[in-house]
Automatic annotation (TrEMBL):
Protein family per UniProt: Belongs to the glutaredoxin family. Monothiol subfamily.
Organism from which the protein derives: Pseudoxanthomonas mexicana
Record-linked SUPFAM superfamilies: Thioredoxin-like (SSF52833)
Protein's name in the database: Glutaredoxin
Top-level taxon of origin: Bacteria
InterPro entries found in the cross-reference section: Glutaredoxin (IPR002109), GRX_PICOT-like (IPR033658), Monothiol_GRX (IPR014434), Monothiol_GRX-rel (IPR004480), Thioredoxin-like_sf (IPR036249)
Keywords: 2Fe-2S, Iron, Iron-sulfur, Metal-binding, Redox-active center
Keyword Magnesium (UniProt): no
Binding site for [2Fe-2S] cluster: C29
Length: 106
């Protein structure tokens, strides 16, 4: 499967997807770590993540797919939310909890 199709399939296949450096248990950068913590605080315990350090094709192509240059990248319901800064701003305002709850409700 071409990498752009794979990215699309991952984004479409899960309500919440975080493309990050490392894993939630072992984040490999502070931005990824803070994004994971904000998502967990907002109620996203079962987070679907992709470690871009182990997926060089995704790491190279995701910025073109999303038109967003940095990692982590958070997608909710197929839509790019943004990176660490936006995720933290949404968390502080209480919006992230609402968005997560909507994404995870059946």
């Amino acid at each position: 499967m071409p990498v752009m199709e794979r990215i699309q399939a991952e984004v479409d296949g899960h309500p919440i997807v975080l493309f990050m450096k490392g894993t939630p248990q072992f984040p490999m950068c502070g931005f990824s770590s803070r994004a994971v913590q904000a998502l967990r605080d907002a109620g996203a315990e079962h987070l679907y993540t992709i470690n871009v350090l182990e997926e060089p094709e995704i790491r190279a192509n995701l910025p073109r797919y999303s038109n967003w240059p940095t990692f982590p990248q958070l997608f909710i319901n197929g839509e790019l939310i943004g990176g660490c800064d936006i995720t933290l701003e949404l968390h502080e305002s209480g919006e992230l909890q609402r968005i997560v709850a909507e994404a995870l409700s059946p």
